[in-house]
Amino acid sequence: MVDNVVQVAVHDLRRKGQGDFETILGKAQLNVSPTVVRVVNELHSLYASKASKAHGRFSDKVADYPAQTFISDFERGKYQDFADLTQKLMDTLTVQARRKPGATGGHVLFAHIEKDNHVYLMVAIINDKLGAALTNDLDIADVKHLDLDGFRFAGRVNITAWLAEADRYIGFLKGKGDVAEYFKEFLGCDTTVQDIQDTKTLIRVLEDFADPAKGVVKDKNVFLQRAYEICERHVREGLPLDFQAFSNELYPDEPDVLAKALGDPDLALGDGFVPNRRSLRALVRFKAKTSQWSVEFDRSALAEGKIVYDHEKKTITFNELPAELVEELERERE
Fold first, then answer.
1. 217-224: long-range contacts at Cβ-Cβ below 8 A with a sequence spacing of 24 or more?
2. What is the reported pTM?
3. Hey, is 166 helix, strand or coil?
4. Which of 152, 185, 172, 176 shows the shortest CA–CA distance to 242?
């Protein structure tokens, strides 16, 4: 759920012929009715639930990708001229659609929303779906409605994070193939991959998902060890992660639950990266160091009881010490 739906507009991107599109402008701004709020909330929830997203920042090539200029003008104008913003963005979207073979049109919904004290602009392309409804005299008639579940293109710009100079503040659905690229180009998004940081974020999400207090994963150690094995395979083969496929393999009982956690748009974690091998070790290894000692051990040592952690005393006990270490300690004791 978003905290506040501030402004909404819907325009049409219509195909005129092979490779050609036109813009049909709707109302400058819709009345933010309960129905409009429900639709925006449902779209935002569906966007958040989809695992395959890409995240990035505005391209430095401002002249080639003007969306950031339009959004900047909108912000500087205290978010007042929503009609001007959406009309200019529609022009940009139409240009990009003409450049991409296989691009499709649809109803383009723009929503100025607020969530967790952040201001966002959300854009989604939706199509109609044919259904049926009972009339007053109990006859059956065709009825068109928005196919919210079937939308394929959506993006979200965190304007507040952008102004705060965050590393990533744009997210969009990646979709299949390269058709969705025109949506990325429309937003002017640079999706430079940061594999080390993405791997660390991935580990944080997996550890939180497997937290025994949540009661979702039966055995945290087994879950994280399996996650490590899958990621390590991707490293060896140089294959980027696909969060949906990753979730299907790692958590087959309820893969969509894990995929939703990985695809949380507030994390700005997109799939399509090859995990960083060195960072990945944190999934199965603990490491600590002080001025007097350092320790490093695999998670399996805890699972097998070779290392025991005492929660009350905040201490760890090492069992089955190597013979050479025992000999050194015994000599020291003497």
1. 217/251, 221/299, 221/300, 221/302, 221/303, 222/303, 223/250, 223/251, 224/283, 224/284, 224/299
2. 0.75
3. coil
4. 176
Type of residue found at 32: V
The two structure tokens encoding residue 159: 């304007």
Question: The tokens of 143 are what?
Answer: 């009825």
129-141 pLDDT tens trace: 877 878 787 778 8
Radius of gyration of the chain (CA): 25
Q: What is the pLDDT of residues 163-219, one digit of tens each?
A: 999 988 999 887 655 556 778 889 998 877 788 899 999 999 999 999 988 889 998
**Residue 287 is which amino acid?**
K
Integer Cα distance of 147 and 333 in angstroms:
75
pLDDT digits 0-9 by tens, 75-131: 999 999 999 999 999 999 998 888 887 777 899 999 999 999 999 999 999 988 877
